[in-house]
Amino acid sequence: MTKRAVIDRFEGSFVIVELEGRKMVAIPVEIVPEGAKEGDVLVISIDAQETQKRKERIKDLFESLKEEGEE
């Protein structure tokens, strides 16, 4: 599922975006692509592949910590 947000304005270190349903939210400017400007449409989606990779890395780290604790 994909969501869209329209950049309404910039306020200091935040970007005010309008979500579907006209709800306004502030997000840190650091997570907005460089060069974004008022009126641009941001696409928000889930990266399933990256999510799975992160889960596997966390699981591997947890397993290695358990093994260290058993020694």
Summarize, please.
The chain contains one helix and four strands, in the order E-E-E-E-H.
Essential attributes:
single chain, 71 residues, OB fold (Dihydrolipoamide Acetyltransferase, E2P), 4-stranded antiparallel sheet, 1 helix
What is the N-to-C order of secondary-structure elements (H for helix, E for strand)?
Answer: EEEEH
Q: What class do helices, strands and sheet pairing give?
A: alpha+beta
Q: CATH architecture, please?
A: Beta Barrel
What proportion of the residues form beta strands (DSSP E)?
A: 35-45%
Strand count, sense and closure of the main sheet? Answer: 4 strands, antiparallel
CATH topology: OB fold (Dihydrolipoamide Acetyltransferase, E2P)
Low-confidence stretches: none
Question: Total number of helical segments?
Answer: 1
Q: Could you name the CATH class?
A: Mainly Beta
Shape: elongated
- DSSP strand tally: 4
C-alpha Rg, in Å?
Answer: 19 Å
Percent helix range: 25-40%
Give the spatial strand order of the biggest sheet. Answer: 3-2-1-4
Pfam families: DUF3006
Protein name: DUF3006 domain-containing protein
InterPro entries: DUF3006
Organism: Caldicellulosiruptor acetigenus (strain ATCC 700853 / DSM 12137 / I77R1B) (Caldicellulosiruptor kristjanssonii)
